[in-house]
Amino acid sequence: MVEFAPLFVPLECRLQTLAVLKWIFSFLILHLICCVVFIGLLFTRFWMISILYAVWWYTPQQGGRQSAFIKHWTLWKYMKDYFPISLVKTAKLDPSRNYLAGFHPHGIGVIGAFTNLCMEGMGFSSVFPGICSHLMMLNMWFCFPFFRDYIMSMGLVSADKESAAHILSRKGGGNLLSIVVGGIQEALTARPGAYKLVLQNRKGFIRLTLIHGAALVPIFSFGENDVFDQVENAPGSWLHWFQDRLLKTTRFSIPLFYGRGVFQYSVGFMPYRWPITTVVGKPIKVQKTPHPSQEEVDRLHQCYIKELSNLFATHKLKYNVPKDQHLEFC
């Protein structure tokens, strides 16, 4: 039976819902609309706009092009309050250094990372003064005209070695580059109560931090997996087979997620109002090693897993995680 939302709710709640709806719209539909507009302009008297943009499209994009105006939109504050979302600082980040952070878990929409590390709804620049935050995103999202510039304005950068090197090698420090390590493979297992991280064989970010000598920061976002449900896709099911095959073929797959609706609470694509708390751990000091050996990579990788596990264990009881729950690595 469908559970409808009350007819009269505070304006604040309506604005929060609208802000999240805009975010959902951006990543489900807006990129497609941008493609239609780009192609459509070619067949109008404004065709030169698309031509000029095509030239602009090929200019270097490493490091993104952040816009303080967009990052400070009031919209992000309402989105933060919808869940609500919190940012917890456990240690200071020295603005004279560069940092590479691993963000866990991926969840369905990486909402904690997007809100806390890209937008100023949580006041990241006040919590970590002197630090400019960047978040890596699948390269495919940067293939959509106009949409690419929109997401770059928020601090998102393409997930490739060139972008990472450009940011981590900046002189003077003050840069934090976050990587959602588990990627889409981890998103396929994201559901309420899940604490399984795809990390055991993910060592590329470890090699990067060694090459550039950037301090390594573990980040865990409590509640990230709880804001959406997902259609059952246990190993052996046809859905799991399809998603796995698609991932291996295209390096992208589709988690069949669902949550609540806009005007009813039973089913829809809106996330549940569940608290998300992103905890930024203590930096791990890294010695710059231009040509790290596999042994050095493995050693730092194990150190990172240990620090991430300790971060989770230290804070889990504060955020409604059962005492006997531990992280699983695969």
From TrEMBL:
Does the entry feature the keyword Membrane, yes or no? yes
Where this protein primarily resides, as one coarse class?
endoplasmic reticulum
Tell where it localizes.
Answer: Endoplasmic reticulum membrane
Q: Does the keyword Zinc-finger apply?
A: no
Arranged from A to Z, the UniProt key words for this protein are: Acyltransferase, Endoplasmic reticulum, Lipid biosynthesis, Lipid metabolism, Membrane, Transferase, Transmembrane, Transmembrane helix
Cellular component, GO annotation:
endoplasmic reticulum membrane
Leader sequence range is none
Its placement in the membrane is given as: Multi-pass membrane protein
The membrane-spanning stretches of this chain are 20-43, 123-144
Q: Name one GO molecular function term.
A: diacylglycerol O-acyltransferase activity
EC number, as in UniProt = 2.3.1.-
A single Gene Ontology biological process assigned to it is: triglyceride biosynthetic process
Record-stated family: Belongs to the diacylglycerol acyltransferase family.
Mind telling me what this protein is named? Answer: Acyltransferase
Organism equals Capra hircus (Goat)
